[in-house]
Amino acid sequence: MKKLYFLLLFFWLGFLGAECAALEKGAMLYHTSAGGIIYGKTNQLELPCSVLEAVLGQLKSGHAGLYIGNLRIIHAVLEGVVETDSRNFIPVDEKDEGVVYLGAKLPVNYDSAEWSEERKEQLILIAKEQVGKGYDILFQSQTGPDSGDFTCVGFVEYVYEQVGYTVTPMGYYNGGPGGKSYTQVYNCEATLWQDWDGVNTFAEDVRFSMFNHPLDYCCGREFEGGKYMFFPYTQFLQASTMAVETDIPVTGGEDSGGGSGGGCFIRSIER
Asked: Cα dihedral angle (199, 202, 203, 204), rounded to 10 degrees?
């Protein structure tokens, strides 16, 4: 009888351990796009050139979300900002396409007195208040409802900023130290079938990466005559965060419905 008692106790404790996740609420979650790509189609940003491709094409660039506790996340997807089960961070169809989980991050001082329970609760409250806000399909505001809708990484940045913490330093990178740049050659009806060179960049140290496109109205945040995007992998690289163990399920959820369930993407639309 005593042996049976200890056996039942063992399984009960094991069950509790499986249900009680230790991942802190407020953790930032990241995954790649299909095929393990972290930035653009081939880890170089390649935008569609033609008007038809610009209207119909989409280019995934990884994804970011926010863990709010109790196996729930909030993230910005095509339908807008939604709260859902953590398993839906990487839907099963996207996992089958080679989407790779990169890990979870927290602010480097998250275990200090600066991050009181009250401040953490305020972070989650602000995140929940954004549920229902739109997705910034043209990447024109990216980081908040004050000037428009959210992208996935812009949502995470915005929520942390509202409680006084900057994850990714504000800045606009257009080449040189602190990132990488390369030239994409466009040739389509938008360039009158002539080669048109556009410089695309990836920022490692600051928030926004510059890109060039012959349809200069298509998308992107404007700054001093240039167009810029904020990539999830840029935020993932920041020294303001530290990697933490992920002890919650982040995949296995419902299908994304043709790619709408997860992943920031860049889509250019003719206007």
From this structure: -150
Residue 161 phi/psi, 5-degree rounding, is -60, -35
CATH number of 21-266: 3.90.1720.10
Cα distances (Å, whole numbers) of residue 217 to 111, 195, 221: 44, 19, 10
Alpha-carbon distance of 70 to 85, in angstroms, equals: 9
Q: Which two tokens stand for residue 232?
A: 């999830």
Quick one: which H or E segment has residue 182? strand 179-186
Instruction: Please give the C-alpha separations between residue 183 and each of 96, 150, 206, 212, in angstroms, as whole numbers.
Output: 32, 28, 20, 9
Mean pLDDT of 104-117: 97
pLDDT tens-digit series, residues 230-258 = 999 999 999 999 999 999 999 987 766 54
What is the C-alpha to C-alpha distance for residues 234 and 162, in angstroms, rounded to an integer?
A: 20
Query: CB–CB of 230/143 below 8 Å?
Result: yes
What is the DSSP track for 36-54?
A: GBSSSTTSS-----SHHHH
Task: Give backbone dihedrals phi and psi of 222, rounded to 5 degrees, phi first.
Answer: -85, 135
pLDDT tier at 41, thresholds 50, 70, 90: low
Other beta carbons within 10 angstroms of residue 201's beta carbon come to 24
The pLDDT of residue 253 is 79
Residue ranges of alpha helices (H) inside 81-194 are 92-96, 117-129, 152-162
Q: What are phi and psi of 106, to 5 degrees?
A: -130, 160
pTM tops 0.70, yes or no: yes
191-202 per-position pLDDT tens digit: 899 999 989 999
- Per-residue pLDDT band for 220 (boundaries 50, 70, 90) equals confident
Q: Residue ranges of the alpha helices (H) in the chain?
A: 2-19, 51-56, 92-96, 117-129, 152-162, 232-236
